[in-house]
Write a structure and sequence with these properties.
379 residues; alpha+beta; Structural Genomics Hypothetical 15.5 Kd Protein In mrcA-pckA Intergenic Region, Chain A; Pseudouridine synthase; 10-stranded mixed β-sheet; 4-stranded antiparallel β-sheet; 27% helix; globular
């Protein structure tokens, strides 16, 4: 009765032990539980769920759930390692049981192999990672490349319908190295695309911030100058088929979700086959395939050992056939330099003049709109 009662409190992690991570551009748009699977594979889904329930997991300063989508630049606050139970001698991840056909499929994708990485030529139609309704995906097939060593790790992504060069790390050390290269924008990626119509200029840079379009569940991006994240795409025309279509080279200078697709559609030239961003206007007649015509043609990145990885991926059948049907010659694309030459003073003056002309057109359009509104009111 007269004794002192002892109250039991849950032990909270010391503030100095809490870890904070910043979401990179290559992780923009993925689920929080996927982020843990990619960067902290020892932390199971059950642990992430428990951290979320107890309020220890924070995203951008707010309580988070495993299904939340992360955005580039957001901070993820994670409890200290001691919060996770000690592992036994069991393997960290149960390997997928692949059929012989699946193992052969992923081996056939390999176009480059060294001690630190594989580069794969991902076919169109194969998702990079799984989801609620996606059971067959590249991440699952990577067990077919593990052999006796560690399981390869994804360090960047391609959309399901985009084909081409995809880098996969073979070790934890190389995964960290490549992740820094992608987040630091030192990796160079070159895409080839066929777009509807022909741009007015032969080359340019699209500088338009992107945000998730409301009402699409995060599945579609749109230009948002107020709330969007910075996004820049360099483009140039390789060849044209009259005014019907153009073969373009695209280089993403940032790594937003659907960046190339949203940017090309925003300037009135959607990528052929991209119904999501171009609607019915994104298709060509005359037997041209209705599949997406976007291919990661080349990747160049510093290797962990100090060398360079520079790999080109062959085109899938439908894009190769479309190039031929439109009269484009493959050799024209191969002669395009990866680095952008410095603009001459004359070219810079022309660019400034073109930008000023575009601004004057916008102002004239605004004045006309205000004038028409005034006339309507007077009536």
């Amino acid at each position: 009765m007269g004794g002192t009662r002892r109250l039991a409190f849950a032990k909270r992690p010391h503030v100095s032990d809490i870890r904070t991570f910043t979401v990179s551009e290559d992780d923009d748009g993925i689920r929080l539980d996927r982020w843990f699977k990619r960067h902290m594979p020892d932390v199971t889904f059950n642990i992430v769920s428990r951290w979320a329930r107890t309020g220890q997991l924070r995203l951008a300063g707010k309580r988070a759930t495993p299904g939340d989508r992360v955005e580039a630049g957001q901070e993820i606050r994670v409890p200290p390692p001691e919060s996770a139970p000690q592992r036994t001698g069991r393997p960290q991840r149960k390997r997928e049981l692949l059929t012989p056909e699946e193992e052969q499929l992923v081996r056939d994708m390999v176009i480059h192999e060294d001690a630190g990485a594989f580069v794969l030529n991902k076919p169109p139609g194969l998702a990079t990672q799984g989801g609620t309704k996606t059971h067959q995906h590249l991440d699952r097939l990577l067990d077919g490349l593990a052999g006796e060593g560690a399981r390869p790790k994804l360090v960047h992504r391609l959309d399901k319908d985009t084909s081409g060069a995809l880098l996969v790390a073979r070790t934890a050390r190389s995964a960290g190295h490549f992740a820094k290269a992608f987040s630091g924008r030192t990796a160079k990626k070159v895409y080839w695309a066929i777009v509807v119509g022909v741009p007015d200029a032969m080359e340019g840079v699209i500088d338009a911030p992107l945000a998730k379009q409301p009402g699409t569940g995060g599945e579609k991006m749109h230009i948002d100058h107020e709330n969007g994240l910075p996004a820049k795409t360099r483009w140039r025309v390789i060849d044209r088929a009259g005014n019907r279509a153009a073969w373009v080279e695209l280089q993403p200078l940032t790594g937003r979700t659907h960046q190339l697709r949203a940017h090309m559609a925003s300037i009135g030239h959607p990528i052929v086959g991209d119904a999501k961003y171009g609607g019915a206007e994104a298709f060509l007649t005359g037997g041209i395939s209705r599949k997406l015509h976007l291919h990661a043609r080349r990747i160049r990145i510093d290797a962990p050992d100090g060398g360079k990885i520079d790999v080109t991926a062959d085109l899938p059948a439908h894009i190769a056939e479309s190039l031929e049907m439109l009269g484009f010659e493959l050799m024209h694309g191969e002669t395009m330099p990866l680095e952008q030459p410095k603009a001459s003073p004359v070219a810079k003056q022309r660019k400034v003049a073109a930008a000023a002309k575009a601004r004057r057109r916008e102002r004239r359009g605004e004045r006309r709109a205000r004038g028409s509104q005034g006339k309507t009111k007077r009536r």
